[in-house]
Amino acid sequence: MFIEQGVHSENKFWKYLIGSVIIIATSFVGQVPLLLGIIYETVAKGVPYPAGNEELMHFFDPNLTLFLILISFVFTMVGIYFVVRYLHKQTMRSVTTSRPNIDWKRVFFSFSLWSAFTIISTLLFYYTNPGDFVLNFKPVPFAILVVIGVFLIPIQTSTEEYVFRGYLMQGFANLAKNKWFPLLMTSIIFGAMHLSNPEVSKMGNIIFVYYIGTGLFLGVLTLMDEGMELALGFHAANNLVSALLVTSDWSAFQTHSIFKDISEPKAGLDVILPVMVIYPILLYIFSKKYQWSDWKEKLTGKIQIQENNTI
């Protein structure tokens, strides 16, 4: 059982608090290249220091900004490995899956399914609302974006999955000795993590329905499938395909994408529809393909403390 792999007698919750501090610290270290770049531009070239997150996103060329933001997740992933391996005496596999090895077929199926949906829905929006988009395609910048995106966006999304659906999911399980509390807490914290996203200021707090709902969906995927593979594939597809297809002046990622959304941002069906309709459909597809059962037990059941062991 996936979530139980981190629950044992000596894996106290205080270790997860210390581990979280270490992971956050490595994230800050990973932001040093971005900070040095800003300092260089402001000191050497006299460019005004960015006053906020929105100005920061437009401070450098989009590809350079994306690279500097994403590179911090490489440092964070190293921090996660260090904490899992040396503080908790677990393997990375134990916070990834309950299977003997990572099931890459699951990762790629989830990635392919959500990529196809994202591409089709984006093209549908483009052809039904052509006035909301402009063609933004520039071959060379786009090619650079593809390289950056393919190599670094999966690291970014995997880092978030390891933090929330892996590390903290098992951490809160150690605290609560049940499954519903870790599912709920990781979803709320995942949503809160996006508080500084520019979409929040443009659309309002209603956008947290989407963020928390997405966290809940990814958590259900992880608990029902006894591993993070489906969540890893979905999250990578969501961020990578979106970064390549569409950008806007108010989105978290400013990219040299194929299209640019010039519509006025508003919270509507695009916020509610995924959580209320699309995610349940995806859960149904996954449940049939992988023959899930015992939903109540896997999502809300109690957890027994195991004897200490290195997994």
TrEMBL record:
UniProt KW Transmembrane keyword: yes
Annotated keywords: Membrane, Transmembrane, Transmembrane helix
Transmembrane segments: 16-40, 64-87, 107-128, 140-159, 180-197, 203-223, 230-247, 267-286
GO biological process, one term: CAAX-box protein maturation
Ranges of residues in domain CAAX prenyl protease 2/Lysostaphin resistance protein A-like: 143-241
Matching InterPro entries: Rce1/LyrA-like_dom (IPR003675)
One Pfam entry name: Rce1-like
GO molecular function: endopeptidase activity
Superkingdom field: Bacteria
PANTHER family the UniProt entry points to: MEMBRANE-ASSOCIATED PROTEASE-RELATED, PROTEASE
Name by which UniProt lists this protein: CAAX prenyl protease 2/Lysostaphin resistance protein A-like domain-containing protein
Source organism per UniProt: Flavobacterium gillisiae
